[in-house]
Amino acid sequence: MAATLHALRIAAHDPRALERFWTGLLGPAIEDTGFRLSFVRSDEPKTRQNQMHFDLTSESLEDQRRTVAKALELGGRHIDIGQLPEETHVVLADPEGNEFCVIEPGNDFLAECGFVGAIASDGSQEVGYFWSKALGWPLVWDQDQETAIRSPHGGPKITWGGPPFTPKTGPNRLRFVLTGPLSEVERLVSLGAARLGAGDDGQVEMADPDGNEFSFLIRETAA
C-alpha cells in the first residue's frame, strides 16, 4: 500500500498569521487538493527561493486580477525572481516571503486541476519518479527531464522542473507530510529515501533522493 500525502507543512515565524493568509486566499479550494496545509513555528530565516511553490490558476484575465488583488489585500506582495516582461503569470509572495504564482488563463497543462493547479518543485527527473512510486500517483508528464504526477482522484499536479537546480542551503521551509503503516518507511528507503531520525509525535523524518526533507506519520493498521 502506497503512502498517503497527508499535508503540506509550511514553517513560519507566525504560523497563525500565515494560516490566515492562505485560508483567506484559497478558501474552500484547499479541500479539493486531497491534502491539508499545516503551519509550524520556526525561527529560521528565509534565505533562498523555496524548493516548492503553489501555481494558482485563472479562468480569465479578470479572474487573475481578482486573485492578485485578494493576495495583496491579505498581505502578499509582488516579487521579482527573474521573470521576463513578456511572461503573463504573476509572481507573488505571502507575508513571510514564500513565493507563489497566479497563472494566466488558458494554461492547458493545468486544465482541470482546479484553483490550486500545481505544487511546482525544483527537482530532478529521478525525484519525480521517486514520488510517483512513493505515493502511487501516475506520471502525467515526463519530457526533457521535467516530470509531473497527479493523484488518480484528481486535484493539483506536483511538478519537478529538472536542471538547473537552486542550491540547497539548510532545511526547506515547505515539506510534505506522509502517512501510512510502519512498513512503508522501509519501502520508501528501498525507493531511494533516507532516514533522518525521529521527529515530534512519533514521526519519522526522511529525505527524498534530492535531499528534500519530508515527514512520515505512522498510522497503525487494524489488527
Secondary-structure blueprint of this entry?
Elements (H helix, E strand, L loop, with lengths): L3 E9 L2 H12 L9 E6 L10 E5 L4 H13 L3 E2 L11 E4 L5 E4 L13 E6 L3 H11 L3 E5 L2 E5 L6 E4 L13 E7 L2 H9 L2 E5 L5 E4 L5 E6 L5
Parallel strand pairs: 1-2, 3-6, 7-10, 11-14
Antiparallel strand pairs: 1-11, 3-7, 4-5, 5-6, 8-9, 9-10, 12-13, 13-14
Protein traits:
Glyoxalase_6, alpha/beta, 20% helix, 2,3-Dihydroxybiphenyl 1,2-Dioxygenase, domain 1, 223 residues, 4 helices, 14 strands, 32% strand, eight-stranded mixed sheet, six-stranded mixed sheet
Written overview of the protein:
The chain is α/β, with parallel strands linked by helices. The protein has a single domain (4-218), classed as 2,3-Dihydroxybiphenyl 1,2-Dioxygenase, domain 1 (Roll). The protein is 20% helix and 32% strand. The chain contains four helices and 14 strands. The protein has helices spanning 15-26, 61-73, 125-135, 183-191, and strands at 4-12, 36-41, 52-56, 77-78, 90-93, 99-102, 116-121, 139-143, 146-150, 157-160, 174-180, 194-198, 204-207, 213-218. The strands form two sheets. It has an eight-stranded mixed β-sheet with strand order 4-5-6-3-7-10-9-8, covered by helices on one side. Strands 2-1-11-14-13-12 form a six-stranded mixed β-sheet. A hairpin with a 5-residue loop joins strand 13 (204-207) and strand 14. The radius of gyration is 17 Å and the shape is globular. The mean pLDDT is 94.
